[in-house]
Design goal:
mainly beta; 17-stranded parallel beta sheet; 34 strands; about 5% helix
Length: about 550
C-alpha cells in the first residue's frame, strides 16, 4: 500500500520560514511506503520531531526540492534513554530510501532550530542550553537553505553544527566485526544510537548480503548535523553502515557537520560525486572492512575555529581521509579466526579515485595572487589522507593541497596482528599512485612509506606521484577562506569570498608530465577520467554547480 503525505493548509511566508506550505511534522516511524513532497510546492518542508526509522519493509520516497528538517536536541543524553533525542532519519536494514533530487532542485536535509528574534543565533528562550524546537509560527534559523545557506558559524562566532542528528543508512552487507557484539556474524548496533533505548533491530547493521539494496541517494545535501543520540557517540553527516552495492549514491553533500562528513562502516556500496565541506572531524572516514569504490570526491576542510578559539566540531577538521581496514585497536574482539591467525574478514579493499582535498591552511595557487582576507578565527593545520589499522586498497589520481605543517598523506601502524598497514603494503595490498600532495609537510621515511617507495604501489616521488608538488601548478584558486560568520544575516553570499574570489578546484594548467593513470577495471568506474583530482581542467562546468552549498552561495566556481 502506498501512502502519500500531503500538506492540507498553508501559512504566510514568515511563519513557515520559506515560500512553501506549513511544514508537516513527522513524529512516528515510516512503516508503509510513503512519499514526502507529493503535489506540494518546490520547497515543501518536513520536520522530524524525533529520530524517525524507516522500517518494516517500507520505502520512503523524498521528491526533488523537499527540505527535511530535524528538531534539535531538547535534553541531555542519558544512558539507556531516548528522551530529548534530536530529529534524525534512520533507514533500517529492512527499509529503503528513494531520495532523488535534481541539479536544480536538490533534496536538502537541515535543522529545524529557530531564530525568531532574527539575530543569526539559534533560539534558547528558556536558557536550558538546548536550541528551541520549531513550533507552528516560528521562523527557522536556516530559513533560506535553497537560496542563501546558513554560515558555518553563527553571529556570536559559535558553530552551527550538531543542530540535529543526520542521515543514517543501515544495510545487510558484510563488515569484519565478527560476532563480538552478540548480534550475529558481522553485526553491530551503529554508533550514535542509544542501545538499550531504541530497539536493537532498528539500530543493527551488517550481515552477509554483499548486494543488498538500501535505495538511492541522488542530489542530496545534508547540513548542520552531527548531534549525539547515544552517550559520547556523535552522528556523521551521512552514515553508511553495512550498506550493500545494490544501493545507488551519487551527488551527495555534507556541509558543516560536528563529526565526520561521510563514514562507511564496512559494506560494499560504491559511490561517486561526493562533496564534504567543513566537517568537524574527518572529511571521509572508512573502516570495518569496507570494500567499495568511490570516484570523484571533493573535500574542503575548515580553515577556522570558533571566535573564542575553541575547536570547530570535534577537533576542527582532523583528517581529510581516515582510511582504516578494521577496528582492531578499538574493539580487539572484532576479528574472526580464519586459518592460522586472527585475520579480519572481509579484508579491507577500499578504492578511492579522483579525489581533490583542500586543507585547512588557506592558500591560492593562482600565479601572482595573494590572500587578502584574514579569517575570523585561525585553525591549526589538519592532516590529509591517513591509512591505518589494517587498511588495504587504492588511492589513485588524487590531489591533496594546503595541509600546511601537517602531511598531505601519512601511514600509521596498527591493525590486527599480521594484517597491519605495513604488512599489507609488503603483501602488495596497498597502492597509492598518480597522486599529488602539495603545500604540506614532507612525508617522512619509515617502514611503511619505505615499503611503498620500494613496492608495486610506486609511491616514490616520480611521475607516478609527486609528493613535494614539484611540477604541480596548483589549483586555479585554492583560497577557500571567507568570513565564516557570514553576512549581516548570518548567511553565505558571493561578497564573502576572499583571495581572488571564488574557489576554483580545477588544476591551474597542465600537470607538466605528471598526469593521471589508467583507471582500474571496476564496475561503475568512469575509466575515461585519466586525470588527477575530482575535476577535469577543461570542463566548462564542474559537477558541484547549482546544488551544493558553496555553489548556491556564489563561493565556488561553476
Amino acid at each position: 500500500m502506498r501512502k502519500t503525505v500531503a500538506i492540507a493548509f498553508a501559512l504566510a511566508l514568515g511563519a513557515a520560514g520559506s515560500a512553501g506550505a506549513q511544514p508537516l511534522v513527522v513524529s512516528t516511524d515510516v512503516t508503509t511506503d510513503t512519499v514526502w513532497g507529493d503535489n506540494l510546492p518546490l520547497e515543501s518542508q518536513i520536520v522530524l520531531q524525533q529520530p524517525i526509522f524507516v522500517k518494516n519493509g517500507a520505502t520512503l520516497t523524498i521528491l526533488p526540492g523537499v527540505i527535511v528538517r530535524g528538531q534539535p536536541r531538547s535534553a541531555a543524553v542519558q544512558a539507556g534513554s531516548t528522551a530529548g533525542t534530536p530529529g534524525t532519519l534512520i533507514v533500517t536494514q529492512n527499509g529503503k530510501i528513494d531520495a532523488q533530487g535534481s541539479k536544480t532542485a536538490p533534496i536538502i536535509m537541515t535543522t529545524a532550530a529557530t531564530d525568531n528574534d532574527n539575530n543569526g543565533i539559534a533560539d534558547d528562550a528558556d536558557g536550558n542550553g538546548f536550541e528551541d524546537p520549531w513550533n507552528p509560527g516560528d521562523v527557522f534559523l536556516d530559513d533560506t537553505p535553497a537560496t542563501a545557506p546558513l554560515a558555518p558559524l553563527n553571529k556570536a562566532g559559535e558553530q552551527n553544527t550538531a543542530l540535529w542528528g543526520g542521515l543514517v543508512i543501515l544495510g545487510n552487507a558484510p563488515t569484519n566485526l565478527g560476532d563480538a557484539f552478540g548480534l550475529g556474524f558481522g553485526r553491530r548496533a551503529v554508533e550514535g544510537l542509544t542501545v538499550p533505548g531504541f530497539p536493537v533491530a532498528d539500530a543493527t547493521y551488517g550481515g552477509v548480503e554483499a548486494h543488498d539494496n538500501s535505495g538511492t541517494l541522488r542530489y542530496v545535501s545534508v547540513r548542520h548535523a552531527g548531534d549525539e543520540i547515544g552517550d559520547g557517540n556523535e552522528l556523521n553527516g551521512i552514515t553508511l553502515a553495512g550498506v550493500g552495492d545494490g544501493t545507488t549514491i551519487e551527488f551527495a553533500e555534507v556541509y558543516v557537520n560536528f563529526d565526520d562528513g561521510i563514514e562507511w562502516f564496512g559494506g560494499t556500496v560504491s559511490s561517486r560525486y561526493l562533496h564534504v565541506a567543513f566537517a568537524g572531524d574527518d572529511t571521509f572516514d572508512l573502516d570495518q572492512g569496507y570494500t567499495g569504490v568511490n570516484q570523484f570526491l571533493f573535500g574542503v576542510m575548515p580553515f577556522f575555529n570558533e571566535n573564542d578559539g575553541g575547536s570547530f566540531g570535534t577537533s576542527s577538521g582532523d583528517k581529510a581521509g581516515e582510511f582504516d581496514g578494521d577496528d582492531f585497536d578499538e574493539v580487539p574482539s572484532n576479528v574472526n579466526l580464519v586459518g592460522p591467525g586472527d585475520a579480519p574478514w572481509p579484508l579491507s579493499n577500499a578504492i578511492t579515485l579522483n579525489a581533490t582535498i583542500i586543507g585547512s591552511t588557506p592558500d591560492s595557487g593562482a600565479p601572482g595572487s595573494a590572500i587578502d582576507f584574514a579569517p575570523v578565527s585561525a585553525a591549526s593545520a589538519n592532516r590529509g589522507i591517513q591509512i591505518r589499522s589494517g587498511f588495504a586498497g587504492e588511492l589513485k589520481n588524487s590531489i591533496v593541497v594546503n595541509t600546511g605543517t601537517a602531511q598531505g598523506f601519512d601511514v600509521d601502524a596498527g591493525g590486527a596482528p599480521g594484517f597491519t598497514v605495513a604488512e599489507n603494503v609488503a603483501a602488495g595490498l596497498v597502492a597509492v599512485y598518480c597522486s599529488t600532495f602539495d603545500d604540506g609537510a614532507a612525508i617522512p621515511a619509515g617502514p611503511e612509506t619505505d615499503a611503498l617507495n620500494a613496492g608495486n604501489a610506486r609511491f616514490a616521488a616520480t611521475t607516478d606521484n609527486n609528493n613535494t608538488g614539484a611540477g604541480f601548478p596548483g589549483l586555479v584558486e585554492e583560497d577557500q577562506s571567507f568570513n565564516p560568520t557570514g553576512n549581516a544575516a548570518g548567511k553565505l553570499d558571493a561578497t564573502l569570498a576572499g583571495g581572488n574570489g571564488r574557489l576554483n578546484p580545477r588544476p591551474a594548467s597542465g600537470l607538466s608530465g605528471i598526469g593521471g593513470c589508467a583507471q582500474p577495471n571496476e564496475y561503475g568506474v568512469d575509466r575515461s577520467a585519466t586525470y588527477r583530482g575530482a575535476f577535469i581542467r577543461t570542463a566548462s562546468e564542474i559537477w558541484t554547480t547549482d546544488w551544493t552549498v558553496l555553489s548556491i552561495a556564489g563561493l565556488l566556481a561553476d
